[in-house]
């Protein structure tokens, strides 16, 4: 019964001290909630995101030569598969877009082309039906398809009788033989809709060629007992034999091996772990500062405990009341922490970039929520009951004789509180400094010249698939008609056509040589990105011509083959002269290739992102190198988004079965910044929380200094010390520790610079301006947090304080 009474009494005391209660509860709840939400994201993305058996065992292979890596050709894959003995199986895969026609409308879908070993290597089976057999994975086989679960639900309305039915993909009828389980995807960011066999493509002589480095990668799982290193060695031996057998196409080629998990998470992992470190810092700073707040409260109540003990109160009863307050604080902080976790998780998911896999499937993890609550409970109990525990060993006359000589506020404990303050300031500065560096990096990235004019520019992404547009003449006729229709729209000022616009990645890359400087038969040819554009593209996109000319309508198959190159390509080979008039041999070793005359040099454009490097790039004229996947660039006089519907209708008027994806170019700019903005915003939020919590800790230490030295302060004032001197004395006592913490934090930021180096663009990880500004901010916050206790100390009435002693 007494414990229930003490719980009620403790609750009433906390209600009376709403300022203290709210500060302690909010501090603990913020650390607990933020930690839980962030770790839930990491659990979903890094620890539980790959829906295959033992994903850590899976390896991905690509071909390589000294100039870099490249895709695997189909004949080389077949030789690898036939000659290897170290793997349970080798599976080839790539991605292709297909038109899906449901009888009324056509949509653009994404299909994975895989060999029959693909699902067995992953260790997954279709939820219904079956996977591919070897007979279906060869030229001449009847078209079959395995559907992804979402595609089956959305497009076939989860029809249980779908297996055995036919669906139309790019004008060809495929028989559905299986449906994959819910949640299964191999590719992340842009998930695949279905899977089709890759082997039938070998009927095409161009595909079945050792120089045809398209987009194939190879997936494998070593047999039990065989290490990844041993398996790689075997494949390297096979590649060496192929290089000796086919020197014209395979000479100098080897194998690049990566773990699948590294390929997926190499860019995402450091971002998420940095954020996890940030919320861990928030939790640590919160716990340390709540400790100081609770100890400060204990100092204020020491005389109360002493009087109650002198009047005959049982020391264990006093301890029990302190325990009750700690339990209430832990309970309130736990409830608020759960609420913060659930409220902040949707915010995290909304901000997250699309290339983070399974981010949208993240849910609060109760084990980590329980762990954060246990930490909160331990801090509350340890620091909250310390004053009550001390009453068991207090001599009441000693406590009543001098309020300033606390039995539990000895020098050892003062050192602990100082260490907590210094450590909290140091790690807060490290976190705030990292956030400042990322803010500066984002600012520099946003100021980068992308090489084109994205304002008033609309991009229409069109992929012509199927037999209808298989010929070059048919696809050229479609895009010519599309440009005419779009140019006739009111508000359109220009239209151009390109394979891959800026910031959207590459159209492709391949080998080349410079006649007279690099021979086409050299073992290690350089490679460059290639792109395809029409005569209007550079003008429509706002890409500056540096020398020479753009493409002309007369650059056709019947005219000499020409090329336009970017600045990087020109500077690499003709740094002191003009590249116009020189020739480039485009093709791999031993290939006839194509001899191109350079007719123009254009300004560099960012292809992979505003913070990416610029590679050499070759542009081919559309009429000489037409392909079915192109992007129409529409320059508008007004808001480009307002033209989207009219532009789509113009395309549909030519062929209503052609799906169109439409985005303003500002969308591509935003996408390249989204991951950097995500990291910068979240780290800044966590740094702000840490600074707030550090301020609470500084306030607690300063308040404790005032509470524990009332008599000393009263004596100083009674002897004539000006109040301003008392304020300065209290402020300097605290600020010395803050300065020491800042010094340690600067050292820690310098030592930890390598952790954020790869996340920065055009900013040094030890940028003196950012770190000094962070120090100034933290010192300013510390001065503000110290001002209230210092003002309170200066306002002490010496007579009342000394009379109380």
Quick tags:
single chain; 805 residues; alpha+beta; 4 domains; six-stranded mixed beta barrel; six-stranded mixed barrel; 24 helices; 22 strands; 50% helix
How would the global form be characterised? elongated
Mean pLDDT equals 83
- Count of separate structural domains: 4
User: What structural class do helix, strand and pairing data support?
Assistant: alpha+beta
Radius of gyration: 34 Å
* Uncertain regions spanning at least 5 consecutive residues: 402-409
- Major β-sheet, in short? 6 strands, mixed, barrel
Helix content: 40-55%
SS strand fraction? 15-25%
Number of helices: 24
Number of strands: 22
Strand order of the largest sheet: 3-4-9-6-8-7
Distance N to C terminus: 36 Å
Structure description:
The protein has 805 residues and is an alpha+beta fold. It has 4 domains: 1-55 and 268-403, no CATH class; 67-251, no CATH class; 410-449 and 673-805, no CATH class; 465-657, no CATH class. The chain is built from 24 helices and 22 strands. It has a 6-stranded mixed beta barrel with strand order 3-4-9-6-8-7. A 6-stranded mixed β-barrel has the order 14-15-20-17-19-18. It is elongated. It starts with a helix and ends with a helix. The model is unreliable at 402-409 (pLDDT under 50).
In short:
With 805 residues, the protein is an alpha+beta fold.
Secondary-structure topology with pairs:
Layout (H helix, E strand, L loop, with lengths): L1 H15 L1 H30 L11 E7 L2 E3 L3 H10 L3 E15 L4 E9 L3 H5 L5 E2 L14 E4 L1 H7 L10 E4 L2 E8 L14 E4 L19 E6 L5 H18 L1 H4 L3 E6 H6 L2 H43 L4 H37 L14 H19 L1 H6 L4 H6 L9 H36 L10 E7 L8 H16 L4 E7 L9 E6 L13 E7 L3 H5 L3 E4 L13 E5 H7 L9 E4 L7 E9 L14 E5 L7 E8 L7 H11 L5 E5 H44 L1 H9 L4 H29 L1 H5 L10 H27 L3 H7 L1
Parallel strand pairs: 4-9, 6-8, 15-20, 17-19
Antiparallel strand pairs: 1-2, 1-10, 1-11, 3-4, 3-7, 3-10, 5-8, 6-9, 7-8, 12-21, 12-22, 13-21, 14-15, 14-18, 16-19, 17-20, 18-19
Helix pairs in contact: 1-10, 2-9, 2-10, 2-11, 2-19, 3-6, 9-11, 9-14, 9-19, 10-11, 14-19, 14-21, 14-23, 15-18, 19-21, 19-23, 20-24, 21-23
């Amino acid at each position: 019964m007494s414990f229930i009474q003490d719980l009620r009494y403790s609750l009433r005391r906390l209600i009376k001290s709403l300022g203290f209660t709210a500060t302690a509860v909010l501090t603990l709840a913020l650390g607990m909630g933020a930690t839980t939400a962030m770790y839930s994201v990491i659990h979903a993305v890094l620890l539980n995101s790959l829906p295959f058996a033992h994903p850590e065992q899976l390896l991905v292979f690509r071909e390589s030569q000294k100039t870099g890596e490249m895709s695997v050709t189909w004949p080389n894959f077949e030789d690898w598969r036939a000659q290897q003995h170290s793997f349970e199986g080798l599976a080839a895969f790539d991605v292709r877009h297909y038109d899906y026609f449901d009888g009324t409308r056509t949509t653009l879908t994404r299909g994975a082309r895989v060999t029959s070993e693909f699902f067995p290597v992953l260790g997954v089976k279709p939820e219904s039906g079956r996977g591919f057999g070897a007979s279906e994975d060869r030229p001449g086989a009847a078209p079959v398809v395995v559907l992804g679960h979402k595609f089956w639900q959305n497009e076939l309305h989860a029809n249980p009788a779908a297996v055995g039915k036919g669906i139309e993909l790019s004008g060809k009828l495929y028989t559905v033989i299986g449906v994959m389980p819910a949640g299964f995807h191999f590719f992340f960011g842009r998930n695949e809709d279905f899977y089709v066999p890759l082997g039938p493509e070998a009927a095409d002589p161009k595909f079945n060629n050792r120089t045809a480095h398209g987009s194939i990668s190879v997936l494998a799982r070593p047999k039990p007992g065989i290490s990844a290193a041993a398996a790689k060695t075997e494949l390297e031996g096979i590649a060496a034999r192929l290089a000796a057998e086919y020197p014209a196409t395979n000479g100098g080629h080897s194998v690049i091996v990566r773990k699948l998990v590294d390929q997926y998470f190499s860019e995402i992992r450091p971002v998420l772990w940095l954020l996890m470190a940030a919320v861990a810092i928030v939790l640590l700073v919160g716990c340390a500062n709540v400790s100081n707040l609770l100890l400060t409260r204990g100092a204020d109540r020491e005389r109360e405990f002493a009087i109650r003990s002198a009047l005959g109160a049982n020391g264990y009863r006093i301890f029990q009341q302190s325990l009750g307050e700690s339990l209430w604080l832990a309970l309130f902080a736990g409830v608020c922490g759960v609420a913060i976790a659930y409220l902040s998780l949707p915010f995290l998911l909304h901000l997250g970039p699309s290339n983070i896999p399974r981010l949208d499937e993240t849910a609060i993890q109760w084990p980590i929520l329980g762990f954060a609550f246990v930490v909160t409970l331990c801090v509350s109990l340890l620091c909250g009951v310390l004053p009550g525990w001390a009453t068991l060993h207090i001599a009441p006359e000693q406590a009543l004789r001098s309020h300033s000589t606390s039995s539990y506020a000895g020098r050892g404990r003062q050192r602990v509180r100082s260490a907590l303050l210094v450590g909290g300031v140091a790690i807060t500065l490290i976190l705030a400094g990292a956030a400042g560096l990322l803010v500066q990096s984002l600012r520099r990235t946003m100021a980068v010249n992308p090489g084109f004019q994205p304002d008033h520019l609309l991009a229409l992404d069109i992929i012509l698939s199927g037999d209808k547009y298989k010929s070059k003449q048919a696809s050229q006729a479609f895009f010519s008609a599309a440009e005419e229709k779009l140019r006739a729209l009111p508000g359109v000022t220009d239209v151009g056509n390109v394979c891959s616009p800026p910031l959207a990645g590459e159209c492709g890359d391949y080998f080349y040589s410079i006649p007279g400087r690099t021979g086409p038969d050299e073992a290690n040819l350089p490679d460059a990105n290639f792109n395809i554009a029409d005569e209007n593209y550079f003008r429509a996109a706002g890409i500056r011509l540096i020398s020479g000319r753009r493409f002309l309508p007369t650059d056709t198959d019947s005219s000499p083959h020409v090329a336009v190159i970017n600045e990087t390509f020109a500077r690499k080979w003709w740094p002191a002269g003009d590249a116009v008039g020189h020739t480039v041999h485009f093709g791999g070793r031993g290939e006839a290739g194509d001899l191109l005359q350079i007719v123009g040099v254009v300004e560099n454009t960012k292809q992979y992102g505003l913070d990416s490097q610029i590679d050499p790039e070759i542009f081919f004229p559309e009429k000489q190198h037409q392909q079915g996947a192109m992007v129409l660039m529409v320059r508008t006089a007004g808001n480009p988004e307002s033209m989207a519907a009219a532009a789509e209708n113009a395309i549909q008027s030519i062929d209503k079965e052609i799906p169109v994806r439409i985005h303003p170019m500002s969308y591509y700019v935003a996408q390249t910044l989204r991951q950097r903005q995500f990291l910068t915003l979240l780290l800044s939020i966590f740094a702000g929380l840490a600074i707030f919590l550090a301020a609470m800790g500084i306030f607690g230490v300063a308040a404790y200094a005032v509470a524990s030295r009332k008599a000393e302060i009263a004596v100083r004032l009674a002897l004539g010390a000006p109040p301003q001197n008392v304020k300065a004395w209290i402020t300097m006592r605290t600020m010395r520790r803050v300065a020491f913490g800042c010094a340690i934090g600067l050292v820690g930021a310098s030592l930890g610079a390598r952790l954020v180096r790869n996340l920065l663009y055009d900013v040094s990880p030890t940028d003196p301006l950012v770190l000094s500004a962070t120090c100034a901010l933290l010192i300013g916050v510390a001065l503000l947090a110290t001002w209230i206790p210092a003002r309170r100390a200066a306002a002490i009435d010496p007579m009342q304080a000394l009379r109380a002693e």
